[in-house]
Amino acid sequence: MSEKNKSKDLSSRKVLAMRDVQEAAASGAGRIRIAENCVVTPSARDFVQQRGIVLEVATGSAASAAAPAAGTPAPAPAAVAPANARLFSTPEAEAVKKEICAVGRKLWMRQFVDGNGGNISYRIGPNEVLCTPTLVSKYDLTPEILCLVDLEGNQIAGVRPRTSELLLHLEIYKAVPEAKAVVHCHPPHATAYAITGKIPPNLIVPEFEVFVGKVAISPYETPGTKAFAETVLPYVKEHNTVLLSNHGIVCWADTVTHAEWYAEVLETYCWTLMLAAQLDAPISYISEQHGADLLAIKKKLGLPDARFDASRMKECQLSDVEANGSIALSPNPCEGRTGNSADADMEALIKQVTDAVMESIGTGK
Ligand SMILES: [Zn+2]
């Protein structure tokens, strides 16, 4: 049998992805048998056409009989494209693609990503996720180069290969049904905490308490691996933002825009704490009572926080400053901040935060 006639049977696959056709080519196959309803990803289709590899449709006698001769172009995927491939170009997908590009540009402009670092995704169907491609600066994203993948990471559509860090996003989607969008980036001040293993203390800035709250830190693993993706699993149900040891951060939310907001809130918070640490003055902490008010707002908004589960927290220990006292300054909780004017200030702040959150929910996609 000549090389061109050597056939590889992949008719049990629902999706024929780039790596499948590369493996088939590496094994010397000139023909690949696929199921009638198999989805051939655009990159796989391009690859087989360039290599002159023939795709033979395995089921249905007419299709088998009509299998093209060696060297002829593969059957058009339009003939076998399932519903989920069409998700790539729905009006909703086009709107989300634009949002992903805008968020990518924000991440780059704010110096949260360097080189081709960072990645963004959105769960557009029960088993389908739009995501950024690999090896592209987040500043240079355009809707045409984004990818559609399934929850196992197989590419369904898109001309560029998906980000290699997609597995991290997929683990979050599988573990947290409320997660519709994931943003991963490397903002410098938050990453400084991630490389020291320190967790920013709580009860200092209301906005941070409401939008992010108690941050978790996941152990280090090699980026892009399944082991790395799984490091966040113990934390993502109770935290929408996780520090990734020696790496960066990951945030999930209901929209891509909101996930990027959480990255901004955490980064600004970490930066502010570092600036405050340079001042010759102790930090004033928000009182436990006022902290409880903020947590109540957060719970009402449906945002996750490990502190909601009282059994995991000692009574009145919202700040956990002794465990985390990570900015090398002694805490100065409660005293001196519970007078009438401080209370009034706090009321105003809480109202501000609530209004901002309500507005975001009202106007969010
Ligand atoms: Zn990264």
What does it look like?
This protein is an alpha/beta fold and 365 residues long. The protein is 39% helix and 15% strand. The protein has 13 helices and 15 strands. The strands form four sheets. The protein has an eight-stranded mixed sheet, sandwiched between helices. Helix 7 (188-196) packs across helix 10 (256-277) and helix 11 packs parallel to helix 13. The protein is elongated. Mean pLDDT is 81; it is low at 60-80, 311-316 and 321-343.
By DSSP (H or I, 4+ residues per run), the number of helices equals 13
C-alpha geometry = elongated
What structural class results from the helix and strand content? alpha/beta
Overall pLDDT metric: 81
Task: Name every ligand kind in the structure.
Answer: zinc ion
Helix share, percent: 25-40%
Q: Name the quaternary structure.
A: single chain
Distance between the termini: 57 Å
- Spatial arrangement of strands, main beta sheet: 9-8-7-6-10-13-12-11
Largest sheet: 8 strands, mixed
Strand content: 15-25%
Indicate the low-confidence ranges by residue numbers.
Answer: 60-80, 311-316, 321-343
Q: Rg from C-alpha positions? A: 25 Å
The SSE string, one letter per element, is EEHEEHEHHHEEEEHEHHEHEEHEHHEH
The strand count comes to: 15
